[in-house]
Write a structure and sequence with these properties.
With 281 residues, the protein is mostly helical. It contains 18 helices and no strands. The chain has a domain at 3-14 and 98-278: Orthogonal Bundle (Hypothetical protein af1432). The termini are far apart.
């Protein structure tokens, strides 16, 4: 099977809820108001609670108290609340996956770390509305969950990296495509915005000539995250070359600060989005 085949099979199992579809329709409808969107979110108490917890967390660092969904939409903006809705329903949708708990804990920890890394880089490089980048990191590797559902033995082989092997190369070797390819196909089937699909689909492309800023940031954030996880002990330049860091204006000091930011924020985000993964801390 190719990446699309896996994604199509997965989309039959991992279905975004009717609430998500309704919220998406309202956000896409220019005639909708903040109250219209808030009213639909309020129909799902767990979703409402998650949005308010994240909105009031240090992740957004809003100086006041956000105590209603309408205020969250007003303060954070429709796009950012939509990203929080996507984050919530994505983690909820994959709760039914067939996978060992340890695998899932590691997966979500790495996803959150990548999300925090890209957000930090966005702030450091003065990218407008850097909070929006978080969702790219969180969703960037959903293809691994898809393959885990249908071919867990292959996922186990892919995880066993030698020091001269990179994850995306091993994925192509075993599957004929990368997890990024599969993730992009799934997000298309879910009809998520192209602004999310494009950077995720091209996260492994090392030709920056035509890449968007979001794609470049995800490229670097993912590799910085991997140096703390699957590629720990690898030569840094093997995973992320100096010319790519220079192209973005990222130096060793920024990388250290990004790692510190992850260490400070990881637990709070995991506790909201995936409490079982937070238990290891």
């Amino acid at each position: 099977m190719n990446a699309l085949d896996y994604a199509e099979k997965a989309s039959e199992i991992f279905v975004l809820s009717d609430s998500f579809i309704r919220i998406k329709e309202l956000i896409d409808d220019e005639a909708s108001t903040i109250d219209d969107i808030a009213d639909v979110i309020l129909l799902d108490p767990a979703l409402s609670g998650t949005i308010l917890k994240l909105a009031n967390s240090s992740f957004f660092n809003y100086p006041g108290k956000i105590d209603t969904i309408s205020k969250a939409v007003l303060v954070l903006g429709i796009t950012e609340v939509y990203n929080l809705v996507i984050a919530y329903f994505t983690t909820k949708t994959f709760k039914s996956i067939k996978a060992p708990s340890k695998f899932l804990e590691t997966f979500w920890e790495q996803s959150v770390d990548c999300a925090l890394m890209i957000k930090f880089l966005g702030y450091e490089l003065a990218v407008p509305n850097a909070e929006r980048l978080f969702i790219l990191g969180l969703l960037h590797n959903l293809g691994e969950l898809v393959v885990q559902q249908f071919e867990p033995d292959k996922v186990e082989i892919i995880q066993q990296l030698k020091t001269n092997e990179l994850p995306w190369d091993k994925q192509n070797e075993q599957l004929g495509f990368s997890y990024a390819d599969c993730t992009g196909e799934l997000l298309k089937l879910w009809r998520l915005p192209y602004s999310l699909i494009e950077p995720i689909r091209f996260q492994d492309e090392d030709n920056f000539e035509y890449a968007s800023m979001e794609t470049k940031l995800l490229f670097c954030a993912k590799r910085m995250m991997l140096m703390n996880h699957q590629c720990k002990g690898f030569s840094f330049t093997k995973v992320l070359s100096a010319d790519k860091l220079k192209a973005l204006g990222v130096n060793e000091s920024v990388i250290r600060s990004a790692n510190d930011f992850c260490d400070m924020e990881r637990l709070a985000i995991l506790a909201v989005l995936n409490p079982s993964a937070a238990m290891v801390y």
